[in-house]
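go over this record:
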Amino acid sequence: MARLARLLVVGGSDVFRDEVETRLAAGAAPLSVMNEILAPIARELGRLWDRDDCDLIDVQRACGALQRLMSRIKPQAAARGPLKPPSILMRVAPGERHTLGAEVAEAAFRDLGWRVSRGEARGIGAQLAREWHDFVGFSLGCDRHVESLSHAIAEARAASRNPRLLVVVGGAIFAEHPDIARNIEADFCVCAATIPVKRPNALVTGSAMSHAFHTRG
């Protein structure tokens, strides 16, 4: 992934896109490409930035190329069955500037047939008070905004029309420090690059998973 990340940093988005499309043409599923290639590359870009191996303009250009590619390949919503599927409101954590993680999660939940809404940049409490949702999901990449996320979770629960609203958190910081999810009182934590796409009822039932866990269990 380091090679592909550096390719984007130096402006090689066309070569990168060709490589991804070659994998898709060979039979790779779009969601697998998003989880196994695009999301890890986004994390690698963050590491390059943290080590001062690239500047802000390089990172913005590379992330823009990733998001454009994901918009092209992300799967459409799966056909819904006879039962009403769960609903989730997704947004990045307050202060978080990178949206790729949230977009990957949105695509994965839609692939399961869930009803997915994008959270408003401001006033998520008002949105939850206005619309019924089973879950609210937050994406966070670093520890700088953990406190803000904690406040947002409390606001979401206080405002929600659903008194049993469940909170899902995910992102690079939770892969490194999963206990943060418990500390901020999230109900579920997705602590790896992928979410439980093979087990669509796992979050609803609170089933134990190797890379997503029920924090109250």
Summary: The beta strands are 87-92, 115-118, 135-139, 166-170, 188-190, 212-214.
